[in-house]
Design brief:
Radius of gyration of chain A: 30 Å
Number of helices of chain A: 9
GO molecular function (chain B): ATP binding; ATP hydrolysis activity; transmembrane transporter activity
Number of strands of chain B: 10
Shape of chain A: elongated
Largest interface: A-B, 16 and 21 residues
Order of helices and strands of chain A: HHEHEHEHEHHHH
Oligomer: heterodimer
Structural class of chain B: alpha/beta
CATH topology of chain B: Rossmann fold
CATH superfamily of chain B: P-loop containing nucleotide triphosphate hydrolases
Strand order of the largest sheet of chain A: 2-3-1-4
Structural class of chain A: alpha+beta
Protein name (chain B): Cell division ATP-binding protein FtsE
Strand order of the largest sheet of chain B: 6-7-8-3-9-10
CATH class of chain B: Alpha Beta
Radius of gyration of chain B: 17 Å
Family (chain B): Belongs to the ABC transporter superfamily.
Pfam family, one (chain B): ABC_tran
Largest sheet of chain B: 6 strands, mixed
GO cellular component, one term (chain B): plasma membrane
């Protein structure tokens, strides 16, 4: 274990020396990797923010349960118990039929109700699901429809579906972009490592002559690729962070003009870690393919 | 220690470098391999660390058939051999000490022990105190001595040297030859190819002579006036 660790530490030191030994090349590679990665990273961040903003502007999606007109207090309480036990719900509120009528009158429809002898509106519950998954929405609604004394369940999910579809489309586009740019980054690293192998050809040959295993020879190149990717990931995060800083004020002003309060956020620690890990992985992958291709035999 | 049993090597294109070569070298022997250019000396030496494989025949090192050694086992064989080439093949971006340390780094020696052994190897070849210098600042003979220090730092049981004095003037070449003789005295098996057998004559090595890929002579080298 100590020997294994020593060999890795030595390989890291070797890779760091190589990176530091050619500062301009390292900087340019990190910029290429970073700028390319900042596009999908920024895109995903933008989608997350758009999703948050859409929620803020459109209100929370809800399910309305209308009870039968003659449902009594005991039946209302039974429905309430069921709602309380339903884990998929974030919250619910009871709307008594009198309150519903009062709301209708306040909304300017009092004249329409003038001709009626009694209150035509039933007791109702308005429930907020815990997630925005449309499939879960529909499952909940179908289940509630079977509850006793529930006359009608109204699913307020059309806009959620549209939003999800749009966000999914955006995510797919960004992921496709990430895939293409990721491939480009693998190629960039592949080429960088190829050049590294060429410049270190003599060292590799001498090491082989002295009994170095393939793993010993390859290890510094893997670290080189991974570290180069990591540096690129850092540049990508910096670029995204600068973008967020630059957009924060105009976006807040735009939201305010619609009467909303919205602040563009991110990237958080989790997203940052994911970008760094992804970048390091791509660098390692490019290095692994290059090493396999150019260090075969010997 | 080293056994060649009817070893032949034919390259692609049909050129035969070795044809039915057979000999044995005992532990602690100093053997000089001579012959004209193209006689097959380098090819023969390359078969021992499996830089090449024979077309037919068997090469045994310490009883182990290395001619059919799996690729993954080759590095471990080479760690037990000290290899010295015609050119020093030093790494010119590292100082003398780091060059000598390289085999110990490869074998994963603890750094402190490795440094001690590298210093001892440099002492043995007379380069103690030059360890922080870069190879480019050394003479050809000194560079070759660094290469020898690198070859012996792992305390190999066999030293293989391919024309180690080829590019050196006579004084440097004598120093190198004397070093090889000192290794034999330490119990190391030494196989060295050379154009200039006279350099080793005083040490009365066993002699192998190749001509056109065939071993034509084996025995004790005659005294030759320097």
């Amino acid at each position: 274990m100590t020997h294994w660790l020593y060999l890795h530490l030595r390989a890291i030191a070797h890779a760091v020396r190589r990176l530091a030994g050619q500062p301009l090349g390292t900087l340019l590679s990190a910029l290429v990797v970073g700028i390319a990665l900042s596009l999908p990273a920024g895109g995903l961040l933008l989608l997350d923010n758009v999703a948050g903003m859409a929620r803020g502007l459109s209100g929370t999606p809800e399910i309305s349960l209308f009870l039968e007109l003659d449902a009594g207090e005991a039946e209302v309480a039974a429905i309430e118990r069921r709602l309380k036990d339903e884990a998929a719900l974030a919250s619910y509120r009871f709307v008594p039929r009198d309150e519903a009528l009062a709301q209708l009158e306040r909304s300017g429809l009092g004249d329409v109700l003038g001709g009626l002898t009694g209150n035509p509106l039933p007791h109702a519950f308005v429930a907020t699901p815990a997630s925005e998954d449309p499939a879960m929405f529909e499952r909940l609604a179908a289940e509630m429809q079977t509850w006793p004394r529930v006359a009608h369940v109204q699913l307020d999910s059309a806009w959620v579906k549209r939003l999800h579809a749009l966000l999914e489309l955006g995510r797919s586009a960004v992921l496709m972009l990430a895939g293409l740019l990721g491939l480009a980054l693998v190629i960039v690293t592949f080429n960088t490592i190829r050049l590294q192998i060429l410049t270190q050809r003599q060292e590799i040959e001498v090491s082989r002559l002295l009994g170095a295993t393939d793993r010993f020879i390859r290890r510094p190149f893997y670290w080189f690729g991974g570290l180069q990717g990591l540096l690129g990931g850092g540049v990508a995060l910096g670029t995204v962070w600068l973008g967020v800083r630059a957009l924060a004020q105009p976006v807040a002003a735009l939201a305010e003009s619609y009467g909303a309060v919205f602040a563009i956020t991110g990237p958080g620690p989790q997203e940052s870690l994911a970008v760094l890990a992804f970048a390091a992985f791509l660098g390692w992958l490019g290095a692994a393919i290059s090493v396999r291709r150019h260090l075969a035999g010997g | 220690m080293i056994v060649f049993d009817q070893v032949s090597k034919r390259y692609e294109g049909g050129y035969t470098a070795l044809a039915g070569v057979g000999f044995e070298i005992e532990r602690g022997e100093l053997v000089v391999l001579s012959g004209h250019s193209g006689a097959g000396k380098s090819t023969l030496l390359k078969l021992i660390p499996v830089l090449e494989r024979p077309t037919s025949g068997v090469v045994r090192i310490g009883g182990q058939d290395v001619s059919s050694l799996p690729k993954r086992a080759i590095p471990y064989l080479r760690r037990n051999l000290g290899l010295i080439m015609q050119e020093s093949r030093l790494l010119f971006d590292r100082n003398v000490f780091d060059n000598v340390m390289l085999p110990l780094v490869i074998t994963g020696h603890p750094p402190r022990d490795a440094a001690r052994r590298a210093a001892a190897a440099l002492e043995h070849v007379g380069l103690r105190g030059r360890d922080r210098e870069m190879p480019a600042g050394l003479s050809g003979g000194e560079q070759q001595r660094v290469a020898i220090a690198r070859a012996i730092v792992n305390k190999p049981s066999i030293l293989i040297a391919d024309e180690p004095t080829a590019h050196l003037d006579t004084d440097y070449a004598r120093e190198i030859a004397a070093l090889f003789a000192s290794f034999r005295e330490a119990g190391v098996t030494v196989l060295v190819s050379t154009h200039d057998e006279a350099l080793f004559a005083a040490d009365r090595p066993r002699r192998l002579v190749l001509r056109k890929g065939q071993l034509i002579e084996g025995g004790v080298v005659q005294e030759v006036a320097a």
